[in-house]
Amino acid sequence: MGAEEREGVKERARAQTRPRVRLDQPRAPRRSLFPEYDPEAFGRLSEKIARFLGTGRFIVWMTVIIIVWIIWNIAAPEALRFDEYPFIFLTLALSLQASYAAPLILLAQNRQDDRDRVSREQDRKQNERSIADTEYLTREIAALRLGLGEVATRDWIRSEFQDLVKELESRRLPEPGREERERER
């Protein structure tokens, strides 16, 4: 076996051990350090939360919880209190709730804006189709009116007959004795 043959055998062996790249198929996903999530599911969840945060029920429940929290930490026995007077833990809880609520509301608004944009685009296309249909029908009606202008209508035929009758009466040959009868009258 020559040096060229050995080199060819080694090349074929490397080609067989190396995975073959298929250009007609997508690559397998790589592992990521970040957790994977479904953005659509997360968006739907954020919309549900934003809808709830915008209700009167949320305001009532939040008010009740805060009142109970304050009363408990003022009126309860000293050993059962968990947040003394400046209510630092309550402030922290409300700040945490606000810090999560604002981005969730913004995300829900962005999703609504996307839906509105798609809806406006569909409405615009529908309006364009309606305008095109209206213009087509207008041209058809104009063509029919022009065609009807050349068609004999009942009123036109009637007026033509009346004109002919008048013309025939004016051309009528005098009947013998007619003039005498008209004079006698």
Mean pLDDT: 85
How much of the sequence is in beta strands? under 5%
Radius of gyration: 47 Å
C-alpha termini separation: 147 Å
Shape: elongated
Number of helices: 6
List how many beta strands DSSP finds: 0
Characterize the main sheet: none
Helix content: over 70%
Task: Give me the strand/helix succession.
Answer: HHHHHH
Q: Give the low-pLDDT segments.
A: none
Task: Label the structural class.
Answer: mainly alpha
SSE topology sketch:
Layout: H1 3-17, H2 39-53, H3 56-75, H4 88-149, H5 154-171, H6 178-184
Helix pairs in contact: 2-4
Short structural description:
The protein has 185 residues and is mainly α. It has helices spanning 3-17, 39-53, 56-75, 88-149, 154-171, 178-184.
Describe the structure.
It is a single chain. The chain has 185 residues and is mainly α. Helix content is 74%, strand content 0%. The protein has 6 helices and no strands. α2 packs across α4. The model has no long low-confidence stretch (mean pLDDT 85).
Q: What labels describe this entry?
A:
185 residues; mainly alpha; 6 helices
